[in-house]
Amino acid sequence: MKAVLFDLDGTLLPMDQEEFTKTYIQLLSTTMEKYGYPPENMIKAVWMGVSAMVKNDGSTTNEEVFWKAFGQLFDKDVRADEPLFTAFYENEFENAKNVCGYNENAKKLVEECKKKGFHVILATNPIFPAVATKKRIQWAGLQPEDFELYTTYENIGYCKPNPQYYQEILNRIGVSAKDCLMIGNDVTEDMVAETLGMKVFLLKDCMINKENKDISVYPNGSFQAAIEYIKCQ
Questions:
Q1: Which of 54, 84, 50, 85 is nearest to 66 (CA)?
Q2: What distance in Å separates the CA atoms of residue 124 and residue 159, rounded to the nearest whole number?
Q3: pLDDT in tens, 29-60
Q4: CA-CA distance, 159 to 181, in Å (whole number)?
Q5: Quick one: 214 exposed, middle or buried, by C-beta within 10 A (0-12, 13-18, 19+)?
Q6: Does the pTM exceed 0.90?
Q7: Half-sphere exposure of 19 (CA within 13 A, CB side)
Q8: How far apart are CA 9 and CA 15, in angstroms?
Q9: HSE of 38, CA atoms in CB hemisphere, 13 A
Q10: Sequential DSSP letters for 168-184
């Protein structure tokens, strides 16, 4: 094995995904209302942007397709207000940390991978800008520099569960799928990496299994189990 890919939300950063999303959207809509973005339209526009990113085919970045979709509900140049959104992520977004957990074993797991000499990649679904991704990495007790690559909406044109998202990462680090391991908590979005020939490990602490799949087909368990799994590679 040459590389380990990690999911972030619900994996290295423990959280209830629904609670986090609700808190984040509320913080964003409340903050941006002051700048002329009605909350109802704001929430709808964000989800339009997310939907567009999930459908992205790699022909442009997720950033570009997000802003194009997001701007459809507003009669102004929303990109001109991008600094206001950046300021939100630098400031008010910090309050979303309150609904996230923390597990010291996340750092231990990453360090174990480094000790083994693996490429360490943060394969977090790239629907957030870098400023927000860096924050969430730090909430998990890690630093952006801990990863050779971390995906954001600025630097990639695919999203999970599209297998091409994982293939693009493999292309960038120059490692074949058979030499990689994906560790994540979402059965649909993370375990799909297996279809490319990657090894997978399902972290069960904050597991998401919307399709009620049989998880016994995947190596799975707690942080400690994941650490032991890495030690055996």
A1: 50
A2: 9
A3: 999 999 999 999 999 999 999 999 999 999 99
A4: 18
A5: exposed
A6: yes
A7: 12
A8: 7
A9: 6
A10: HHHHHHT--GGGEEEEE
